[in-house]
Amino acid sequence: MLKRFLQLGFLLLLCGSVWSQELKIGFVDGVKLIEKAPQGDAAKEALEAEFKPREQEIIELRNKIRDSEESLNPEDENFLQSQRDLRDQRRDLKRLQQEMREDLNLRRNEELAKLQRLISNAIVEIAKQEGFDLILQDAVYAASSIDITDQVLESLGATFESGK
How confident is the model at residue 77, as a pLDDT? Predict the structure, then answer.
């Protein structure tokens, strides 16, 4: 029994010396990084430019359908054929809208994943340069003294400017 107490005491003494080493801990606000990173703004602008022609095509088709609906005359001899054409155009419009939504979501997710990789690389680089033992993200509370979010944003900004 005495032997167990001595082993436990030795173990506690050993653990105490390990815990007495000071850890350098940092914190980053992941949401703020994604929202304020210049690469995120650039990706958003690129996506808007990429999908603008398709959006314009959808608007033109929607206007064409609306004009056709307004000019539809029940007394016209081609009324039934015009209704079928309108139905087909509406179906095409829905299909185009759905395809664009799916493609936009896919591209947005790709750009977000790329941005998250850039952010992670910047965090790791800063952590190594400054000797951090641990970087936390999305904590309930973090003192401003350990918050390195602005430092990461500066690094991302410098990377963005050098890549232009």
Answer: 83
